[in-house]
């Protein structure tokens, strides 16, 4: 099992030796390695059993560090960086040749972000290289939002988990890029669409589509529990699956607590719901039930990102 602790120097020494360390961020825990060392980066793909065509994002401590790894940084990107870094916004920019091809799966752009977590900031400031880090979960499973989540699934494959407590936001970063002068949203996440458009004006959406399932960042089935997971109206799903043991995930609690039912936010707060989402999905996956039923949350603000994760976790119904 991995050692869990808050020792930034210990994390640093493993990373300098080309080893993997799980790091806390405000979104989810990352599985980090020296982004400039292809052998270290290869260990990430192996530990996660992640296909080599799915590129990683790199983490820096500031925009001053970012300029060593990406060029050019267009004006819209600068504006977004000024508003949202450190924070849950990843920007796709042309990579400099110092970033190995294994990080970007051969693409000419690299996703870059500056995480807002004091331990990881300290760590990044102490290192002479950026950190490549996908979410620290086995490929396709639910992302981790606590040190224990990482331990439960990848503990045998990594040396050290830097414990920064539960993740404040609980959903992955928003991913933005630029195509022919337009700002493009590739993944919904911690910063919502309205916050982005306030800064750079209208944006294009290029979210996952089943017609293009293998485009980077766009894999449709993701974030999924192992149990059969169904999304829809809870009352009708309960009727349809009356003969099996059901775990239920509801947005808010409108009545007395129900058996085998978990609530994303008792009071109906979307930020709290985002923060609890992955923990509760894991809890339901470990319950003595046969299937999991869930309902969408209101499609506003960060609710759109929550619904995106719920849809990707769910099996398709006719
Ligand atoms: O919040 C986050 O972004 C977390 C924390 C650890 O920072 N990281 C994260 O990484 O969610 P990951 O690898 O689980 O998701 C990053 C997504 C992947 O779906 C990948 O395909 C996409 O970003 N991506 C990375 N680089 C890309 C690129 N150059 N072009 C298109 N998509 C890219
Ligand atoms: Mg991930």
What does this structure look like?
31% of the residues lie in helices and 19% in strands. It has 318 residues and is of the alpha/beta class. The strands form two sheets. Strands 1-8-2-3-7-4-6-5-9-10-11 form an eleven-stranded mixed beta sheet, sandwiched between helices. Strand 10, helix 8 and strand 11 form a beta-alpha-beta unit. Helix 1 crosses helix 6. The protein is globular and about 55 Å long. The protein binds threonylcarbamoyladenylate and magnesium ion.
Quick overview of this protein structure:
It is built from 11 helices and 15 strands.
How is the topology of this model organized?
Blueprint: E1 3-5, H1 8-16, E2 21-23, E3 30-34, H2 38-48, E4 57-59, H3 63-66, H4 75-84, E5 89-94, H5 101-104, E6 109-113, H6 118-126, E7 131-132, H7 147-154, E8 160-162, E9 174-179, E10 182-187, H8 193-200, E11 204-205, E12 228-231, H9 234-240, E13 246-250, E14 261-263, H10 270-285, E15 291-294, H11 303-313
Parallel strand pairs: 1-8, 2-8, 4-6, 5-9, 10-11, 12-15, 13-14, 13-15
Antiparallel strand pairs: 2-3, 3-7, 4-7, 5-6, 9-10
Helix pairs in contact: 1-6
Magnesium ion is lined by residues 134-135, 143.
């Amino acid at each position: 099992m991995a050692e869990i602790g808050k020792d930034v120097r210990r994390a640093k020494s493993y990373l300098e030796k080309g080893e993997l360390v799980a790091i806390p961020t405000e979104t989810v825990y990352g599985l980090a390695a020296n982004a400039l060392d292809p052998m270290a980066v290869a260990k990430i793909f192996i530990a996660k059993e992640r296909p080599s065509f799915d590129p990683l994002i790199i983490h820096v401590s500031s925009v001053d560090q970012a300029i060593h790894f990406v060029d050019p940084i267009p004006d819209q990107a600068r504006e977004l960086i000024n508003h949202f870094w450190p924070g849950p916004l990843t920007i796709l920019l042309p990579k400099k040749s110092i970033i190995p091809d294994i990080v970007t799966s051969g693409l000419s752009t690299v996703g870059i972000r500056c995480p807002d977590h004091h331990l990881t900031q300290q760590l990044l400031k102490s290192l002479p290289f950026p950190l490549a880090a996908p979410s620290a979960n086995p490929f396709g499973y639910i992302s981790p939002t606590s040190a224990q989540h990482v331990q439960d699934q990848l503990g045998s494959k990594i040396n050290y988990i830097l414990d920064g407590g539960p993740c404040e936001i609980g959903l992955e970063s928003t991913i933005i890029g630029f195509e022919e002068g337009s700002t493009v949203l590739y993944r919904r996440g911690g910063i919502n669409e309205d916050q982005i458009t306030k800064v750079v004006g209208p944006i294009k959406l290029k979210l996952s589509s089943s017609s293009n399932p293998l485009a980077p960042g766009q894999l449709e089935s993701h974030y999924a529990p192992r149990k059969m997971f169904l999304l829809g109206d809870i009352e009708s799903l309960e009727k349809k699956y009356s003969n099996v043991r059901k775990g239920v995930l509801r947005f808010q609690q409108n009545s007395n607590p129900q058996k085998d039912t978990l609530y994303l936010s008792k009071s109906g707060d979307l930020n709290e719901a985002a923060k609890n989402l992955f923990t509760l999905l894991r809890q339901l996956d470990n319950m003595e039930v046969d299937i999991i039923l869930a309902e969408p949350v209101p499609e506003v603000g960060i609710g759109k990102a929550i619904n995106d994760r719920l849809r990707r976790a769910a099996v398709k119904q006719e």
